[in-house]
Design goal:
Strand 7 and strand 8 form a beta hairpin. Helix content is 29%, strand content 29%. It has five helices and ten strands; from the N terminus they run ααββββαββββββαα. It is globular and about 45 Å long. The chain starts with 6 loop residues before the first helix and ends in an 8-residue tail after the last helix.
């Protein structure tokens, strides 16, 4: 067992799920070992981020937000901003973006890894150059009856979306085809619901 902030060990022990993870994982490790600023946004080439795949206990719905920057329904998550425990980052970001106060970390190991491209854009009046997000995704569980709210500076809505409707709600085809479908499949096969009444 390891502490979730031991990212090097986590990535070294991670078993890729598909070709995308197999190809991306070595690059995450290389960046981790090559730059002391890889957990900070000031590294404008590539930096670590954490995503939260927040599911209901029955695994039928995922909590997503309508992101202002991408004009699409998307998962929750954000920048490490110096924090090396990416599971803590995923929980923090999910709480900030959704208003949830209770989240359960389903497993101490990541649900997935991926390199995400970010096009250049304006943020708070400052141009952010195109760069890479070295992303680690964590599986979280939450009560779908708990109140949620949006974070106006980042998203305009937060809602539980049926896993079968994600591709209809998201306007980002690459994410639907490569990431969200992978996450749904992994949850279904590796972390099925323990409830027998569904």
């Amino acid at each position: 067992m390891y502490h979730t902030c031991d990212l090097k060990t986590i990535l070294q022990e991670y078993k890729p799920w598909n070709v995308q993870e197999e190809r991306d994982l070595p690059h995450l490790l290389r960046h981790l070992e090559s730059s002391p600023e890889v957990f900070a946004r000031k590294n404008e080439t590539a930096h670590f981020t954490a995503s939260a795949w927040v599911v209901t206990p029955d695994r039928k719905k995922v909590l997503m937000a309508y992101h202002n920057l991408y004009h699409s329904w998307a998962w929750l998550g954000g920048h490490a901003d110096g924090e090396k425990d990416l599971s803590a980052v995923a929980i923090r970001e999910a709480m900030e973006e959704s208003g949830l106060t209770e989240l359960k970390l389903v497993a101490e190991k990541p649900l997935s890894v991926e390199i995400l491209t970010v096009n250049g854009h304006e943020k708070k009046g400052v141009y952010v150059p195109s760069h890479l997000h070295l992303n680690v995704t964590w599986l979280l569980e939450a009560d779908p009856t708990a109140p949620v709210r949006c974070k106006p500076d980042e998203n305009s809505s937060v809602a539980w979306i049926d896993t079968e409707e994600i591709s209809e709600r998201s306007s980002e085809p690459w994410f639907c085809e490569r990431i969200y479908s992978k996450l749904c499949e992994k949850v279904r096969k590796l972390y099925p619901s323990e409830r027998n009444d569904i």
